[in-house]
User: Fold this.
Amino acid sequence: FVYLIMEKQLLNILAEFLTSCLGSSVQIGRVRPLGGSSINQVWYLLTQDGEFVVKWNANCPVDFFEREMEGLSALRQAESGLVIPECLGCRASEGGMPAWLLMRYL
Assistant:
């Protein structure tokens, strides 16, 4: 039960974050888990302003997603021809909420 409350709170935080990034009120309409990660939870988020992916983890090092975002940003800047997701932001775990990294869906 506590896990479901935390997930709902995380979605509210992400909607607020997207609202501040995109400049319009964002509502998350659909959420579905994505596979492929054994370390983090990964969700697909559908909003009226686009599709996004959030990776989250309640038990990771403080700078875990910050470092991943830095690495992905460096890969995007290298203009190698690889398709690299655009990172919108990340947060460290605090106040009982998990750490997360938010990206545009590819």
